[in-house]
Description:
Layout: H1 3-6, E1 11-16, H2 20-23, H3 31-40, H4 42-55, E2 60-63, H5 79-87, E3 110-111, H6 126-132, E4 137-143, H7 148-158, E5 162-166, E6 170-171, H8 175-189, E7 191-193, H9 195-206
Parallel strand pairs: 1-2, 1-4, 2-3, 4-5, 4-6, 5-7
Helix pairs in contact: 4-9, 7-8
Amino acid sequence: MIRSLAAGQKAALVINECQLGIIDPVYAQFPALAEQCRARGIVDNIAALIAAFRRAGLPVVYTPAALRPDMADKLANSLISSVSIKAKIMVAGAKAVEHPPQIAPQADDYIIQRGSGLIAFLGTTLDATLRRLKVETVVLTGMSTNVGIPGNAMAAVEFGYHVVIPEDCIAAGDAEGHRVIVEQQLKMISTVTSSGEVMAALQGRATGCNRP
């Protein structure tokens, strides 16, 4: 059971870094991650959740990365940051920072762009925006199981949110790494479920039933 949703808490869907430069093999700086996104059907699963949240009148929040062309505010203090600086793919205004058409933002959605760092909750207005919207539960999707999802899940928990992670809406650079992180880390700090279960919970709320 997704207890926070069944209890009627206001939820927001957060879509982290589902951008062409990360999930599309044509642009991706990490090809293995892009291949896992394709194999797991991440875009289609997230698209279904987006439609469900919009139907329910609940916030859909995008947290893309878009770096300065000169990389002046990006520190090479981690391997992933060093790769990003060298590749210069995820630059503001470039094709690589766009979302696939199936999950592109609409006018009523929220876009919290990040220029540096590794997670969306730090150094941005994400937390303040969610609080102003009276959000209590964050449904976290996107990239990646290796870095962005656990980082954002931990931050969200620390900020006082309930975190729900549809496991079929996230991906890692390899299937085994994904499994280990989900089983050994994400299940300790969040409710790990599926996109279908989240949609069923939203439908249950709409019809007045406490379904899981």
